[in-house]
Amino acid sequence: MSEKFQFPHPYFFSKPSWKWFILVNVLIGATMSALDVSIVNIAMPTLKTDFNVSMALVEWTAMAYMLTLTIFLPLFGRLADMYGRSKLYNTGFVVFTIGSFFCGMAPSMQFLIGSRVLQAVGAGLLQANAVAIITAAFPAYERGRAIGIQGATQAVAMAVGPFVGGLIISAIGWRYIFYVNLPIGALGTLAGLLILPRDKKKEQKETVDYVGTALFSGGLLFLVLGFNKLVKLGLHSPTIMLYFGLAAVLIALFIITEMKVKYPLVDLKMFRNFTFSAGNFTGMLSYYVLFAIMFLMPFYLERVVGYSVALTGSLLTPIPLAMAFVAPIAGSVSDRRGPRLMTTTGMLLCALACFLLLMLGTGSHIVYLVGILIMLGMGMGFFTPPNNSSIMGAAPKDKLSVAGALLNMMRSLGLIFGVDISGLIFASLEHQYVAEKGYANARQIFRSTMPIDVKVGAFMKGFTMVLITLIVLNLVSALLSVMRNEKIDKEAAEAAKEFEGA
């Protein structure tokens, strides 16, 4: 095809409005991948019954997806920086859609788990490139707002996922929670081919660091598996010690390798930039806090307060909805004033929300509880878009996809650590409490015959300590946010003034 008839023509990319079409295409991928994370959880009991398998095997539908997504994100980011973001992003749509089709037609649980791995490969290609594509398309004075809109879209998709999944399963069956991705994926692929800018060929040919990829993926795999099995096996388990030992060795070898190779998987020099390294670390801590609360709150509301499952699910939706409402505003403010004000405020709000949760005790007024959860969601909404924008702004232009992949990888690790480490703290203190009360051999505490006040007391002891750790982590994140480079804030404000005055 001649250049004359190519669409989209390069002229369109120079038009100010074209970047918003690019953002819409990225939002399609964000909606599809975020919806699929939460929509599958509601189907697990149905999958267990239909396939007549153990719950431990069913849980691998979520675990296999999360593992694959987390460990391969840096590789996908590196490949995108080498061969083109648009090309890899569109490939992600195709792979995710094919994986969704195979999930829907799965004849066995093992086939479904394998299809979820394929789905995760597609989701990884999408996530590794989404923020990088936005960063390349938008100028610095609009980047925060665009990333905020993306974050809002993901938050809404995750919030409605369980509700939509429940409706689909009850109406036409669990297979259609995967088939629903087919038209979305087809639309995203077509839109990507028409809208996304063509990738520029690199003059210098680079090679993939296969050794570094293997070492990093293996180290991350054992690290995640170790934390995942921590609650069940205990910290002193030989299996856990082996997992963590292998993770430490492989990651150490990875760092040594990256310092020697010409074209590393991850350019470790990026972490010399405080904004980049602190942003990734605090991003991980923020998701640790969020998902620790999302993990424990249902147990608190159902077992301690006595709310129904339906009411419990409804009470948790204010968190992502508040995030969705605040995120674009916070991103826009950070474009004009820099990220430090918004990120610090966000983490302090999260710390205050966790402190107020400490005050709930064994009874809670619904309005008061919803107010706290809205505060938590607002804190995350204030923090996340400015933080992500500052990370991408600090990354080299030729490594935007690797930076975006690392950003998403750290958030995934925060999710995993938040659930697993908080679960370990909670379970240890809960069992310590009941042992002190004379029930040392109790396993399923809330299913045992011990007095209800002992059960509630055990729960509150573990729950309280987890909240205290979350307050500390929020304050650490707030401190690191205050330490951000003031020069970046000033440059952002000056760029915004120039834009508004133009």
Could you explain the architecture of this structure?
With 502 residues, the chain is mostly helical. 80% of the residues lie in helices and 0% in strands. Mean pLDDT is 83; it is low at 1-14 and 495-502. The chain is built from 21 helices and no strands.
What are the defining features of this structure?
502 residues; mainly alpha; Growth Hormone, Chain: A; 3 domains; 21 helices; globular; disordered C terminus
Q: Rounded to an integer, what's the Rg over CA atoms?
A: 23 Å
- What is the CATH topology classification name of the largest domain? Growth Hormone, Chain: A
Shape: globular
Which stretches are low in confidence, meaning pLDDT under 50 for 5 or more residues running? 1-14, 495-502
CATH architect. name of the largest domain: Up-down Bundle
Question: Can you tell me the CATH superfamily of the largest domain?
Answer: MFS general substrate transporter like domains
End-to-end Cα distance, whole Å, is: 39 Å
Question: What is this structure, in a nutshell?
Answer:
The protein has 502 residues and is mainly α. It has helices spanning 10-14, 18-39, 44-51, 55-58, 60-83, 85-104, 109-137, 140-172, 176-179, 181-195, 210-228, 230-233, 238-258, 274-305, 309-316, 318-337, 339-358, 366-394, 400-436, 452-482, 486-501. The chain starts with 9 loop residues before the first helix and ends with a helix.
